[in-house]
């Protein structure tokens, strides 16, 4: 399969599956427990229909939005995701360059494989730093200071991952960082030698945001141990309020799902929230971000920027979320599969297709700008 034959999310997913060893593909593709929430994330959009307006003189449309003080040329941003150089040697470099080309925001993870500073040099687009709350408060402060020094515009604290989700696909293959593959997992790597050649012929795998603080490179700590030993499950609203005060800038909580928590985020001074269930990778059976969007926008949408992610595969999905009141929409697997399939050209193609879909859908909806989208354009089955 070739990149030019990829026209949608499913095509990119198939191309990535052809290229990646099974354990790595399933790490991206998998979710928690029975993967009910993972499937629901996309299915939720199918319960909502668009009602277009016609004869509106649609020669040009304006797709730009402003979210958390950042002007984006399109209302979709690349959510921060971990371990990107495991999928393709370019990793975050490819995503940053593609996001810059399309004038949109992108995120770098605490578990990112390229440094905040290097990525900042690649892209002039707004940069988000996603981080986890550690037991070591000094480490939390040091990571925020480093992000500020690197020129990061938005701090994004993930709040739905105080423990890792039960990802059974990874257990079946023995996927872990460092690798602890079982026999079945090793065979999957053996039949994809091109990936191994790519992986081992480039710079060694590392986690530069954590290298100074956690020794993962020597195999002394796995990702699962990092979650279970380094992160602080006792994190509470007072802890986060202190971090918001220390950062004194755009601060977003990723993983908010209840109205009560959305109101607390406003009260402690956050400027954004992302309705997210971590792509279905944490609490299986939890609600989708799209299903929760209307009630949270109604409760706090006039006081804080509300975003959502999870299951977004199409421009029409984005328009449905924006019509309900989301300020912008995050994608994860939508760009990870193209990254795995083809590196920077893959991510560029995926974002280009999304941009074209949004533009086409806006014209077919009769909306010249994002501000013209409203709930009048939607009906739920």
Could you explain how this protein is built, in words?
The chain has 381 residues and is an alpha/beta fold. It has one domain (3-366): Aldolase class I (TIM Barrel), CATH 3.20.20.70. Helices cover 44% and strands 13% of the residues. The chain contains 17 helices and 12 strands. It has helices at residues 9-19, 22-29, 36-46, 84-87, 92-101, 116-122, 137-150, 168-173, 183-190, 193-200, 223-230, 237-247, 259-267, 289-300, 315-324, 333-342, 344-365; strands at residues 48-50, 65-67, 70-72, 76-78, 106-109, 127-131, 154-158, 250-256, 272-275, 305-309, 328-331, 378-380. The strands form 3 sheets. Strands 4-11-10-9-8-7-6-5 form an 8-stranded parallel sheet. Strands 1-12 form a two-stranded antiparallel sheet. It has a two-stranded antiparallel sheet with strand order 2-3. Helix 7 links the parallel strand 6 (127-131) and strand 7 (154-158). Helix 5 packs parallel to helix 17 and helix 16 packs across helix 17 (344-365). The radius of gyration is 20 Å and the shape is globular. It starts with 8 loop residues before the first helix and ends with a strand. The model has no long low-confidence stretch (mean pLDDT 92).
Beta strands, count: 12
Biggest sheet statistics: 8 strands, parallel
Instruction: State the domain count.
Output: 1
Structural class designation: alpha/beta
Poorly predicted segments: none
Order of strands across the biggest sheet?
Answer: 4-11-10-9-8-7-6-5
- Which whole number gives the mean pLDDT? 92
Identify the CATH architecture. Alpha-Beta Barrel
Distance between the termini: 37 Å
| Percent in strands | 5-15%
């Amino acid at each position: 399969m070739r990149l030019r034959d990829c026209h949608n999310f499913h095509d990119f997913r198939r191309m990535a599956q052809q290229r990646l060893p099974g354990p790595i593909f399933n790490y991206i593709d998998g979710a928690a427990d029975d993967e009910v929430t993972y499937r629901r994330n996309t299915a939720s959009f199918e319960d909502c229909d668009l009602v277009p307006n016609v004869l509106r003189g649609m020669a040009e449309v304006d797709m730009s939005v402003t979210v958390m003080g950042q002007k984006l040329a399109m209302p979709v941003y690349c959510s921060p995701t971990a371990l990107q150089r495991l999928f393709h040697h370019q990793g975050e470099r490819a995503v940053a360059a593609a996001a810059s080309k399309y004038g949109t925001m992108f995120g770098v993870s605490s578990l990112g494989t390229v440094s905040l500073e290097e990525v900042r040099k690649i892209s002039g687009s707004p940069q988000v730093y996603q981080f986890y709350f550690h037991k070591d408060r000094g480490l939390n402060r040091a990571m925020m200071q480093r992000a500020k020094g690197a020129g990061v515009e938005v701090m994004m604290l993930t709040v739905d991952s105080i423990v890792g989700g039960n990802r059974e696909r990874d257990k079946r293959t023995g996927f872990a960082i460092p690798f602890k593959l079982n026999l079945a997992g090793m065979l999957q790597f053996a039949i994809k030698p091109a990936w191994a050649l790519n992986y081992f012929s480039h710079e060694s795998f590392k986690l530069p945001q954590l290298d100074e603080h956690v020794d993962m490179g020597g195999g002394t700590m796995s990702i699962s141990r990092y979650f279970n030993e380094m992160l602080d499950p006792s994190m509470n609203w007072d802890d986060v309020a202190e971090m918001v005060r220390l950062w004194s800038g755009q601060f977003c909580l990723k993983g908010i799902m209840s109205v009560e928590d959305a109101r607390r985020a406003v009260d402690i001074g956050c400027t954004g929230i992302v309705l997210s269930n971590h792509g279905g990778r944490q609490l299986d059976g939890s609600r989708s971000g799209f299903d929760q969007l209307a009630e949270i926008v109604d409760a706090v949408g006039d006081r804080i920027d509300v975003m959502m992610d999870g299951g977004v595969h199409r421009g029409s999905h984005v328009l449905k979320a924006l019509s309900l009141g989301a300020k912008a929409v995050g994608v994860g697997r939508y760009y990870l599969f193209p990254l795995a399939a083809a590196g920077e050209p893959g991510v560029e193609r995926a974002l280009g297709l999304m941009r074209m879909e949004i533009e086409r859908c806006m014209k077919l909806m009769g909306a010249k700008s994002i501000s013209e989208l409203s709930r009048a354009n939607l009906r739920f089955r």
